[in-house]
Write a structure and sequence with these properties.
Blueprint: H1 36-43, E1 52-53, E2 58-59, E3 62-66, E4 69-73, E5 75-76, H2 78-93, H3 97-112, E6 115-116, E7 119-120, E8 122-127, E9 130-140, H4 141-158, H5 164-178, H6 181-187, E10 188-189, E11 194-196, E12 198-200, E13 205-206, E14 210-211, H7 220-229, H8 239-242, E15 251-253, E16 256-258, H9 268-272, H10 288-304, E17 312-313, E18 319-320, H11 329-334, E19 343-344, H12 346-351, H13 357-370, E20 375-376, E21 379-380, E22 384-385, E23 393-395, H14 396-405, H15 408-421, H16 425-432
Antiparallel strand pairs: 1-2, 3-4, 3-23, 5-8, 6-7, 8-9, 9-12, 10-11, 11-14, 12-13, 15-16, 17-18, 19-22, 20-21
Helix pairs in contact: 2-3, 2-4, 2-14, 3-5, 4-5, 4-7, 4-15
Amino acid sequence: MPHNIQVLSPSHSCRSNSDKVTELSLRKHFYPSGFEQELQTNLDFFLDGVGVDEQAKVPFDTLFVAGSDIDPQYYVNTTEIGLYLNILTEAYLNGHQAALVRINQTLDVLFGAPTWNGLFYWPYDIVEGQLKPQEEGIVPAVDNANLAFALTAVSGAFFDSADALAVSAVKKIDDILQRQIPGWQQLYEPTRDLLYAGWSAKDSAPLGYYIDRKANESRLAPLWAHLITKGTSSPVPKSAFENMELYTGTCVLNGQKLRPMLTWDGAYFQGMLPAIWLNERCLIPDYSIIEDMTKVQQAHSEQNKIPFVSSAATTDDSYAAFGVPAISEAAVRFELQIAGGNTGTPHATALSFMVNPPDAIAHLQSIKQLHPDIESPYGWFDAVDTKGNMSSKLISLDQGMFVCSFLATSINQQVKTYLKHKGLYPDLKDIYKSFTPNNE
């Protein structure tokens, strides 16, 4: 059964020993009224022995759940690790001293993992407590940027702390980020003035495509590449971000004309994941394109009685890039076939909490009412379709997005603190001025 919520005083630490995390909770204001236990259930995914490997100190990518039985899959990507670190930071701020111990342990695991020019591979197998790259040797820009911003949030939370473990975490994060500079420099392609999507260590060559869309979960990569290489001998110019394209669509909903931002697949997370780390409401010149995208997703979900639509597990436990066709650039601009919008995923609805909190909670509650079996003891199952079929998977990435959507105001501020401390926040604001549609 889900754990009872316990809001700890700052002096309280976990009842577990300092090397194991068997209890997590958040500060009271993070629990929405009427959704307290549901958020806690999803948070409990990140307990040792549930969604986290006790030896490697990182989350499992995938957890199959049957009743109270779990079957973890021993691999992970670094976006998942970053979200886990953000959750641990918030648990520590609620008094869980063991969470700070774990942050340092996880940073040590990261620092000891094999890398390419400091950048991390995707995915890593979890082998006897260590991270081992798979044979393909893929080095993705997207996951490295997500991890980087997650690390800046952890660092920003601890800048003023006198706790020796907090000071140690800040130092480890700085070391990890600094050693990645050569990798970011090598991913920049000056002829196209864009960032490669990544590198293949197996082929000793960049991946054959670029990060060329702003309405994509990868948009933080050229942004971070610019910020971290600024002042070096080979800086990645801000134009690598500015040159990415952005498109909106047009539709009418309840008599209102909307201009929703188009993500490639029509997947909600493609538009929203970066907002966990950056307060894009204050950065994007016209945030209504995000609000309109959210309205289209909400209408689609209410009509089909499923959560918001995004890349997720299928109900037969595969994986697909699901999306709403009306807000898919591939479908709207190029008339390409996409996976479609008949399967929803709870984490996508949770992401909308960053846009419209009351509507997000109301929709999550209605999903639970329509599909009561969607809640496992360790979090909400990853997908449900229009026929009521359900996945038996919990995916760490999606669990992390689910929980961190409710923590975003704090995480945003932690990243802002870090960037201001490093003198980079004005650059961030300047770069985001280019977040305007190419077709308007």
